[in-house]
Structure formats: C-alpha cells, structure tokens
Amino acid sequence: MTNGFLIDMDGVIYRGSELIPGADRFVNQLLEQDIPFLFLTNNSQRTCRDVAKKLDRMGIPVDERHIFTCAMATARFLADQKPNGTAYVIGEGGLLQALHLNGYAVVDHDPDYVVVGEGRAFNFEMLETAVRLINNGAKLVATNLDPNCPTPIGSRPGCGATVALLEAATGRKAFSVGKPSPIMMRSARKELGLSAGETTMIGDTMETDILGGVQMGYRTILVLSGTTSRSDLVDFAYRPDQVVDSVADLCDAVQARSLSVV
User: Active-site positions?
Assistant: First the structure.
C-alpha cells in the first residue's frame, strides 16, 4: 500500500531559522524509504528553489519537486479558470514567478484579477490601486487568509490582514486558494499521485493544516512544536487523528513502516 505525507514547514520542520530537533531525521527517513511527500506552505513570498535551498542549508536535502506553495496552487487555479489571463499583484517573487510559469501577465491596468500574497515591499499606493481595480471589476483572489506570519521577533501582518483591508474598502469578498482550501489540499495530493485514504497531513495549526486535512478525508497528525498546545484542542469541533510533540516522535513508526502513522 502506497502512503504519503503533506507536511507544513514553519512550526513543524523549523521555527524561524532554527531546525526543530529530529526533523532532519524524519525527512531523511522519508527520502531513504522513497515515501512520497510534499512540503506545503501558505507563504507565497519565496520560490520553490528558495525554499528548497533554505531546507538544504538546515540539513534537509530536498529539491524543488518536494515543495508546494500557495502561490503555485493559486497560479494553477487561475490558469484553469481563465487561461492566459492578467493579474495585478500585491506580493513578491514566489507569487510573480508562479503566475508567469502558468501563462499569466502581471499588469497594472484592467486586470482580470487582483491577487494578494505575503510581502513587505508594497505601499499604500498599491493598495489604493488594488481598490480601484477591484471596484472596476477585477476579481479579488487571496493566496491564503492567514492573518499573521511568525518571525523571530514576533508576528507580523499576513496576507489575510491585507485582504481584510481590501475587502472592507471594496465590499467584495476574496476567494482564497491556500490552506485549508480544498483547492490547494487536493492539488497537492494529486501532485503525489495518491488517493485521500493514502494521504496524511502533518501540521501545527488546527485552523489550516488540520482543518484542511479533515475536510479532505486525509489522516491528520498535529505536532505541538508550533502554534498549538494540547489544551487548545477543546476549542475545536474536529480533532486530529494523532497528536505528537514533534515530527521526531514519528521517526520510529516511519522506520518500521507502521500503517498507524503512514
């Protein structure tokens, strides 16, 4: 029986620039046993090459084919909806590259979509332009709705915060493609060539990773090395299939090819 993993990164594999102890051993076991997996991220800033290089420098020797970002999911979705379309983008390199690779032109006049991702290089003038374009008929699309992003010195506003501003200013609701959207969750699973029953989602966030996995019928594993504590579980109507302190706790099961995990 083939089984595979969809794995969140920040809070699961690393925290900021620090590798979570045992995460490298876990991923190396997946590579050694040729178990299919993808790293899933709601961060649209970096390209797949950038993300793979960061992991490689941490001692996790993966390449671009192991990375699946919300920017990729968004660009593929838009290409399916309107091939060779146009977009006004509030975001950075990862999102821009994904759109270009999927046949989209980035414009600042009469776009089909206003697409919003993470970034720190935009200004209020760009937000004003986005509001005007949305009011003129462009559809508002979010790579994700995460309200904040963790940093070594605390959280900063995320894509969801920017989108909320645009929604309030225009009265239009954004369509989101990133986790927990089934669009991204399904697209990533298909990338691995697995069925829902063969897929396990590992994450540290109940509202995105675990919710997305539960909605898709995947097995779900919550790690407590990130944003969620065991006491938080009582606040949710859904539960993960398994709770562990970190992915290091899964190493023995993967080594034994235990179906209770994979």
Answer: 8, 10
Q: Is the peptide bond before 180 cis (omega within 30 degrees of 0)?
A: yes
Confirm whether residue 8 is marked as ligand binding. Answer: yes
Measured in whole angstroms, the distance separating CA 153 from the mean position of its chain's CA atoms is 22
Main-chain phi, psi angles of 203, to 5 degrees:
-155, 170
pLDDT digits over 118-145, tens only?
Answer: 988 889 999 999 999 999 999 999 999 9
**Domain boundaries, given as residue ranges, for the chain:** 4-70+180-214+236-252, 71-176
The token pair that represents 38 in the structure block: 């993808």
204 has binding-site annotation: yes
Question: Domain 71-176 adopts which CATH fold?
Answer: Rossmann fold (3.40.50)
* Residue 112 among known ligand-binding residues: no
What's the CATH architecture for 4-70+180-214+236-252? 3-Layer(aba) Sandwich (3.40)
Exposed/middle/buried for 32, CB within 10 Å: 0-12, 13-18, 19+?
exposed
Other beta carbons within 10 angstroms of residue 180's beta carbon come to: 24
* CA-to-CA dists, residue 63 to 15, 60, 66, 76, 127, angstroms: 20, 9, 6, 20, 35
192 and 216 in contact (C-beta within 8 Å)?
A: no
Q: Is 241 annotated as a binding residue?
A: no
Is the pTM higher than 0.90? The answer reads yes
